[in-house]
Amino acid sequence: xxxxxxxxxxxxxxxxxxxxxxxxxxxxxxxxxxxxxxxxxxxxxxxxxxxxxxxxxxxxxxxxxxxxxxxxxxxxxxxxxxxxxxxxxxxxxxxxxxxxxxxxxxxxxxxxxxxxxxxxxxxxxxxxxxxxxxxxxxxxxxxxxxxxxxxxxxxxxxxxxxxxxxxxxxxxxxxxxxxxxxxxxxxxxxxxxxxxxxxxxxxxxxxxxxxxxxxxxxxxxxxxxxxxxxxxxxxxxxxxxxxxxxxxxxxxxxxxxxxxxxxxxxxxxxxxxxxxxxxxxxxxxxxxxxxxxxxxxxxxxxxxxxxxxxxx
Length: 312
What we know:
312 residues, alpha/beta, Nucleotidyltransferase, domain 5, six-stranded mixed β-sheet, disordered C terminus, nucleic acid binding, Tc1-like_DDE_dom, Tc1-like transposase DDE domain-containing protein, RNaseH_sf
């Protein structure tokens, strides 16, 4: 039986519980994400078939949930956008040409760029809304750094002093970090979460490795499919025009269809987590009973051995 990391299971459970509750409250939910387009992007299979139930199944069927990383050098467009059941947010896109011709497109994005874009987005979104995103590093800059073992001992001591946490000057670094651990949760707020809260907007982060819970992933597949079918010049200016056309052609109905698909996935995951929990409990009970039985057998054997002369 494959076992996921407990923190991932816990994160998924918390996320699913939260988003189901938010939907019941009829809160407006937005989804944001980034992707890229290579200027040589042409027709290939992408995950647009909603009969495909997961990223794993998509791969088994020879489809992808997006494009594979480009091979070789070439210019790319990086796209950042946000949408909801009403479609893409008007004026919410950020499109720019990459400076690097290869490597992960995430290297082109940084916290400063993302936070500037996010601040503009907050002005376009109605209060009491929810924004769903993944936990990419540039989405997750902390308001302040938290001490760790790579810090200088003097810097850890300074942090503890500023927070009013008492310590002995003679304490080792690892002991100082032990003082930090129970207090650090108070200082782990994200920069963008704080900005959102000021606008009465809540940020909700997807659990790691669960991109299939973001409907914009399927929307990107439709956008890229359109561009691939029309891209004949392989020039950056034409690529950008095709991208803008594709974004305009994505309807609220398309978004709603993808969101409905994600809602079904959420329910399946929640049910599977409960089933896995029950199976794990039965497995533990069975192992415990077997261990008890084994212990009894062992004890009986030891008694028999005590009544007979052993071979050694």
